[in-house]
Amino acid sequence: MSAAPRPGPRGRRLPKTDRGAGQWAEQLPPEATVNFAAEREASGIDDTLAALDGELVGLGPVKSRIREMAALLLVDRVRQRFGLLSTRPNLHMCFTGAPGVGKTTVGLRMAELLQQLGYLDKGHLVAAMRNDLVGEYIGQTAPKTKKLLDQAKGGVLFIDEAYYLHRTDSEKDYGQEAIEILLQVMENERHNLVVILAGYKDRMDAFFESNPGMSSRIAHHLDFANYELEELDSIGRLMLEQEFYYLSQDAGATFHEYLARRMRQPRFANARTVRNALERARLRHANRILADPDRTWSRDDLMRIEAVDILTSRDLPPTTESSVRKPS
Ligand SMILES: Nc1ncnc2c1ncn2[C@@H]1O[C@H](COP(=O)(O)OP(=O)(O)OP(=O)(O)O)[C@@H](O)[C@H]1O
Ligand SMILES: [Mg+2]
Asked: 275 in ligand 1 pocket by Cβ < 6 Å?
């Protein structure tokens, strides 16, 4: 998975320092003044922040944290141009939350933002899990982890369910070897590689407790809450809108009812479940249309999802006490 790098703002190139940021920006004399509206404009971050707001429903606290980080980095960048060198902000992060709450999506936006602000050269995201880092036999882990780190250089290494790197049940586990390499690179290459660890909050907390070295290298913890019913509904409508579909009034009511029920079922995965339900609706919509080949269909017909296209809550198994999703 990768995000296309965007060109940085034009200007005289400063010598490449180990700080990474500001390499593309002009130096400023001490008597100069700056205007941050212009700085924001030049960096292009407003587009990314606007996309974050417009394309992602809810996530208020996550969006606020990202704005705060963007402010810090923008000011840091301008300070550098005045020659006010301070240590580069630590950018390694941890995203916690249940499946489908938007962690990977926000990771992609974050990579783009860091590239726009000059903190990453490429701004791509490499998504990985334990198996991408840890080998099965002796001697496999180091080359595997290093290869992945090389691929991620200049961008974000996004490790899903990072706690699986550490296995308490086995002494002969190579996960620890991967963690050691990761720790070293997070320190030595921090000018051009950002690591984001993702997963459930409780497991991540336990992982940090048994790996204090990792905990101390992560500066930003962003917790993603489960979506409320109304948010899931809005996410669904937004997804449809982006694909030029919409729900008829009846379909809207059926979809809402379906979500209310589905949220309480096992394997509910927030926005991912919404996406999957809508993929199925699209399939049913297409088949309903093709089932009546002699009829003429309008453009609007091809956009409108009807109630019969939506899986109804009656199609779901009954909710039992034990299957109700536990709050995380
Ligand atoms: N707030 C949101 N608004 C609109 N779409 C969203 C939102 N959150 C997630 N999505 C969409 O839902 C899908 C799942 O999101 P994503 O893959 O980012 O979740 P995740 O937290 O990484 O899940 P997992 O833990 O399973 O990897 C994506 O298609 C994404 O675009
Ligand atoms: Mg993900």
From this structure: yes
**What domains does the chain contain, in order, with CATH numbers?**
90-224 (3.40.50.300), 229-323 (1.10.8.60)
- Would you say 127 and 160 are in contact if contact means Cβ atoms under 8 Å apart? yes
Q: Residue 43 has what pLDDT?
A: 85
- What tens digit of pLDDT does each residue of 210-235 get? 899 999 999 999 999 999 999 999 99
Ligand 1 mean position, distance from CA 56 (Å): 9
- Whether 100 lines ligand 1, by a CB cut-off of 6 Å, is yes
Could you tell me which of 170, 166, 167 has the C-alpha nearest to residue 179? 166
Q: Is 9 helix (H, G, I), strand (E, B) or coil?
A: coil
Which parts of the chain register pLDDT below 70?
Answer: 1-25, 168-172, 312-328
- The pTM (predicted TM-score) of the whole model is 0.86
Distance CA 212, CA 232 (A): 36
Q: Which of 34, 124, 16 is nearest to 76 (CA)?
A: 34
From 222, 272, 328, mutation site for ligand 1 pocket: most ligand atoms within 8 A of C-beta? 272
Residue appearing with tokens 């020659």: 83
Which pair of structure tokens corresponds to residue 53? 């707001």
Evaluate: CB of 114 within 6 angstroms of ligand 1. no
